[in-house]
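#onboarding

Welcome to the new folks! Below is a worked example of what a typical request in this channel looks like: someone posts a single protein sequence, and someone else replies with the predicted structure as tokens. Don't worry about understanding the tokens yet, we'll cover that in week two.

Example request:
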Amino acid sequence: MSLTHQDYATLSAAEIAEAVASGKYSAAEVSEAAIARMELTEPHLHAFCNPAPELARKTAAAIDAARAAGETLGPLAGVPVGIKDLVATKDLVTAMGSTIYRDFLPEDDDIVVERLKAAGAVIIGKTNVPEFGYSGVGHNPVFETTRNPWNTELTPGGSSAGSGASVAAGVTPFAIGSDGGGSVRIPSAHCGLVGVKASMGRVPLWPGCRDERFPGVSSWESLEHIGPMARTVSDAALMLSVITGPDMRDRHSIPADVDWLEAAKAGDLPKLRIAFSEDFGYLAVDPEVRRVVREAAAVFERDLGCEVVSADPGWSDPGNDFWGLVLADSDLAGMRAWLPEHGANMSPHLVQMLQTRHDDEALTNANMARKKLCNIAARFFGQYDLLISPTLTVPPFALHMQGPEKTEGRIVDPSAWLGFCFPFNMTGQPAASVPAGLTSDGLPVGLQIIGRHLDDPLVLRAAAAFETARPWSALRPPLIDMLEGA
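Example response:
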């Protein structure tokens, strides 16, 4: 019996790799199921800005030929994966949500793409993003707006919007996201997924953020992380086991000293002292998010044997300073040079950012603020093993807006809903978003688990323990039930 796309969508990445290695399924069968799933969901979700079915078929055929010849297969042989369209692929256009790069074909694969290919993963396309990632949602001037499988009138979050939608819809068991201010965790929370931002340097990044020849592409350098978005903690760990480790092209990369697969095994947690903050002491948070995350936090104490203490981390809102760091990482001169010719076809919020002049001390103050934030965090995490919080201040909201203008009765900045995420891009600490539960309207809410710098194994161990205590794999977006029943 051939593999249907319905059965395929229930398989984990690990199960697919095992099935292909054993010959239960061919890589070609798996790829065809993934392509069928993509064709079913794309008219509703627009997760893929550049689908690549023929590339997937070619890769799958090579894997099947290698197996037939008795060659050793990689750990991800035959596993379909989506690649965020801010991540360079030399054999696929990398448009970055911009009309300026609509036909851009990079000279090199990003390091993570190199490693996924070497492990045998099958790339089925590029996933949609906002322009250059300067947004937490999923629309841009080039492609159709990505929609949330849980409610197609709502955003899946961004900037890894297409990656989130594709994994939630079962098109791929996991996908690559990038996270300069939360962009792995944001769509993971809004789409009911696991998203992991490992400690800065765990996953090397090049050429993205580091190729000075390409304005816009060369942004976010001191904040960016790349990581997995998956339906399970173990699949996220499986991807991390492939894409982590040092590379000389990324000066921030650090030695490989984590057994990711071991860290993600379900088991008893040690007696942990965990800080729980609903709002960091300053954020407006939707009451439904507070309720769901409160219930999730109680699991760590009631079911997992941890000591959970209500405690705020102790810093004031670093939002302005975060955006100062983004500006300092951006090629403002190169991007501003586009405005006369391309400004009318660029995202309005990006144009506004480029047209605004910024005081030099505002940029250096941002760097001082980062140092202060890192020092406060170091002292705080000297008292606690982990910090848990909501991932986002609100559930998914309407398409074509940058963020809610009001939360919990308070007027807020349109980017305030990201306030739980970006502090840990400033510190470089490991942080994961896992599904905490659903609102009364049936929308996903994420729980963020933050660890001490370089203590990635404990973050994964805690995520796996929570997953065992509160399983979420049976939860499916209503759209999928509707499409499969059609």
